[in-house]
Design a protein that fits this description.
The protein is α/β, with parallel strands linked by helices. Helices cover 57% and strands 10% of the residues. Belongs to the FldB/FldC dehydratase alpha/beta subunit family.
């Protein structure tokens, strides 16, 4: 048994002692940080090595200082938190790290034993299970949106009521209009007021403008990076594509993420020319699924060209009126509204990247992902790119049919 699984068993044996579990998780994150710092994998580009360290550090800082943190989801407007020096902890990242610790099964079973439906997304069940066991210390604030994930609102409402922590749910209209922008902007002004009230500090509008300015510079680099993706072979593992969610969403607007994208563009410029077969992923990547790890991580034959989730918004935000600009960003997200908007973005990305194949891994519990599968399959057929969809779980490893996945994945890759 490997070291991580041994450590996971030690954590599981102490689940009735939350303070000790907290210390074990904190020690594990610290050890991981120093391990990737001093034992660099030479196959990993400098930019991704930097992102790896920064993501681990961000999770650790959020957990060790809950009174200066806010729980959010992937699509929450964290620009306000960054501008006020509040640490965001997002559900999806925390649950992924707990799956990396191999304790997600215990946390999920705990959530279900406390009344959570077995059809609820495992990202949310893992997070709720940690909360139920008092492993997760309550934050000062919670913030989510009505976008995309139908589990967000009930999960955050439950956690807010359980912990007695203020929650703000931002309602995002499906369609873009001037009235919709005004409606969301008004809510964002209220969010800023709530944050000031809870954290006892003022939001500096100039600091918020600086965050948005940094975000715009970052997004310009994202677009530049995309110009190289179709010509270069770059991402070595699925884990790094998922780490990119820290950079493309919750922490975008920070100077550290701007620096990461500067490094990323420099690295991809130097990357080898395209070789082997490139795969574009829809939505999420099953980074813990053995078959996918075997075929894609540091592979000579196949490599990851990206995923649409990391490019759900590519435009600039109005720096002069950041509240309006962020409102427009939320409404115009390619995952918000009708699926035609998502399909249009996928088509735009695959025309630029020119992948050899498209894979959609339908995460159990994600109705949004599964519901659009055949529409995306039709798009792949129209553009003449082989398409594979598989059902499974990105967090709960017990829900993946390893034998069936291998058979279908091997047949797909052999066809390429």
């Amino acid at each position: 048994m490997d070291t991580v699984k041994i450590y996971a068993n030690i954590i599981k044996e102490n689940m009735d002692r939350p303070e000790k579990v907290n210390k074990l998780i904190n020690f594990g994150l610290t050890a991981a940080y120093y391990y990737v710092t001093f034992f660099k994998d030479k196959r990993t580009p400098k930019s991704l090595h930097y992102l790896n360290k920064y993501s681990i550090k961000n999770i650790k800082n959020s957990l060790t200082n809950p009174q200066n943190s806010a729980w959010v989801n992937l699509f929450a407007p964290s620009e306000f938190l960054i501008a006020m020096d509040i640490k965001p902890l997002f559900i999806e990242a925390y649950s992924s790290f707990m799956s990396g610790f191999f304790i997600e099964d215990y946390l999920i079973d705990t959530a279900e034993s406390r009344g959570m439906s077995n059809t609820l997304c495992s990202y949310h069940k893992t997070f709720i299970g940690a909360s139920e066991l008092d492993i997760l210390k309550k934050p000062k604030f919670m913030m989510t949106t009505s976008m995309i994930c139908d589990a967000n609102i009930p999960t955050f409402k439950y956690l807010s009521k359980k912990h007695g922590v203020p929650l703000y749910i931002i309602d995002i209209p499906y369609k873009y209009s001037k009235d919709a922008v005004v409606y969301v902007k008004k809510q964002l002004l209220e969010v800023a007021g709530k944050l000031e009230e809870v954290f006892k500090r003022k939001l500096d509008i100039d600091k918020l403008r600086e965050v948005v300015r940094t975000e715009n510079k970052t997004r310009a680099l994202m677009r530049e990076y995309l110009n190289y993706v179709g010509e270069k072979r770059f991402l070595p593992t699925m884990t790094f594509e998922m780490y990119m969610l820290f950079a493309s969403h919750v922490l975008i607007g920070s100077k550290e993420i701007l620096h990461f994208y500067e490094m990323l563009v420099e690295d991809i410029r130097k990357a080898p020319e395209r070789s082997g077969k490139s795969i574009f992923f829809i939505h999420l990547l099953p980074m813990f699924e053995k078959n996918f790890k075997d075929y894609f991580n540091f592979s000579d034959k196949f490599y990851i060209a990206g995923s649409d989730l990391n490019y759900d918004f590519l435009d600039e935000i109005d720096e002069n009126d950041p509240f309006k600009g962020i409102a427009e960003k939320l409404i115009l997200n390619s995952f918000n509204g009708e699926i035609n908007r998502k399909v249009a973005r996928i088509k735009e990305l695959i025309e630029k990247i020119k992948p050899d194949g498209i894979i959609q891994f339908c995460h159990l519990g994600c109705k949004q992902s599964m519901g659009g599968t055949f529409i995306i399959k039709n798009l792949a057929s129209e553009v003449g790119i082989p398409f594979l969809y598989l059902d499974g779980d990105c967090v709960d490893k017990r829900n993946n049919q390893e034998g069936q996945n291998r058979t279908r994945l091997e047949a797909f890759l052999e066809m390429l």
